[in-house]
Design brief:
By secondary structure, the chain is of the alpha/beta class. It contains 13 helices and 20 strands.
């Protein structure tokens, strides 16, 4: 690897994977700009490129290898520093060094803060450990991510996250509240609290332990102009009675949750080490609906996990139908080296995994369409995000159920405005309507 520092003036960042990566890339941009390195207009103008990688699935890593090949070709005609960071850099550090000589630096997940020093030639002798930064906000946006914890202690048998992100560490309450205050001063209207297992947040200050419900309550009580506080991704096993009660009481918490189910079969959930059963998951959803009758849910679902039978798959379908998820992120099992599931038997043939995934997607499309048709004439509160890219006479916004709405305005609006919209019809998966 090349250690000789050189001057850099224009950066380009490519971000792959989860919302945490997006937030960390935002923080990285701020640190680069403080080091007098500016964002390039286009990738061809940059003299340093940073790829913030994902390692959750093999397809994500394959895409990164492709981008490394692209920049290898680009480096043949110009001087360019290429940095690979994030979870793939953590997992495949030595392999990237050995197989990709075009890469100048491989920086692990817990070492991203050093990138600005690397590019500016400054010294940074801090230890490699995960550090929360002061600011994750992207300038000009009305929505912002706030990482509140990092890592995971669960070690689900299919998941690489604990190995590339490390064990759980929670951010201090004061640091989070300070960032919330700054965001409100900047005019941010929606914040999303982030963590790989966000509702296992736990921080002790002066002998007082603050759990996730305590933190949520502190945040919502300090807010004035922020409209909604969302959080992702919660683990089903960590929904306390206090959290469910707060969902029903606090108006700043929108009536929508993303709750990863993964499977509707208790036998498969046990093999996945998810630490809940089909029955307890359904009971959790029912308890939340009792507290918030109009709560909507999205989820993650995996099919084709080792040992999954047709009956297990049908249990997943029936659970999705019983809950009525309005959307779902659906995928088939993809072995990740280093996880327990790689060696589990029997492995489900790829053609069966694909066939089940197609059936799952088809089933979810019916659920999504059914929900939207039931609500396509509702009056909803919408947080304005921008002008519509397809029609300059319309605006784009999002409802509290996290659904996109394109609507005709009464007059000129700006991002962050809150308006009432009468829904009129569905166009694809997007509502269209008229401002009241």
């Amino acid at each position: 690897m090349k250690d000789q520092p050189k001057s850099h003036s224009l950066y380009w960042i490519e971000t792959y994977g989860c919302q945490m990566n997006i937030a960390e890339s935002n923080a990285l941009e701020i640190s680069l700009q403080k080091a007098d390195i500016r964002k390039a207009e286009k990738v061809e103008d940059a003299d340093c490129v940073i790829i913030n990688t994902c390692s959750v699935r093999k397809t994500a890593e394959n895409r990164i290898w492709g981008r490394i090949g692209f920049f290898k070709h680009l480096k043949e005609s110009r001087d360019l520093t290429l940095i690979i960071t994030g979870c793939m850099a953590e997992r495949l550090h030595d392999q990237i060094i050995d197989q990709a000589p075009a890469v100048d630096h491989v920086v692990g997940t817990n070492d991203k803060y050093r990138i600005a020093a690397i590019l500016s030639g400054a010294k940074d002798e801090r230890k490699e450990e995960y550090t929360f930064t002061r600011n994750y906000h992207k300038e000009g946006e009305i929505s912002s991510f706030i990482p509140i914890m990092n890592g995971c202690n669960n070690f689900c048998s299919y998941c690489i996250v604990p190995y590339v992100r490390g064990r759980e560490v929670s951010r201090s309450v004061d640091s989070i509240l300070d960032e919330v205050k700054r965001l409100e001063d900047l005019g941010v209207k929606e914040i999303t609290l982030l963590g790989q297992n966000v509702n296992s947040y736990s921080f002790t200050d002066n002998g007082i332990r603050y759990g996730f419900p305590d933190l949520l309550e502190k945040i919502t009580r300090t807010l004035d102009s922020v409209k909604w506080v969302r959080f992702e991704s919660p683990h089903p096993k960590d929904f306390s009675k206090e959290l469910i009660s707060l969902l029903g009481q606090e108006k700043k918490l929108p009536h929508h949750l993303h709750v990863p189910m993964q499977s509707g079969s208790t036998r498969i959930l046990d093999a996945m080490r998810r630490k809940y059963t089909r029955e307890s998951f359904l009971s959790l959803i029912e308890d939340i609906k009792k507290a918030v009758p109009d709560m909507t849910f999205t989820t993650d679902v995996m099919v084709g996990f080792p040992g999954e039978t047709e009956d297990d798959f049908l249990q997943t379908l029936s659970a999705m139908n019983e809950i009525g998820f309005i959307e779902a992120f659906m995928y088939y099992f993809n072995p990740r080296e280093g996880t327990k599931a790689v060696d589990m038997e029997p492995q489900v043939p790829v053609d069966i995994r694909l066939e089940r995934l197609n059936r799952l997607i088809k089933n979810q499309r019916v659920l999504t369409r059914s929900y939207k048709e039931q609500h396509c004439h509702d009056i909803v509160e919408v947080l304005v995000e921008s002008l519509s890219k397809k029609n300059e006479n319309q605006y784009l916004g999002r409802s509290q159920h996290s659904e996109m709405v394109v609507f005709e305005p009464k007059g000129q609006l700006i991002a962050g405005d809150e308006v009432q919209v009468q829904l009129k019809k569905i166009s694809g998966n997007t509502y269209t309507g008229i401002q009241l």
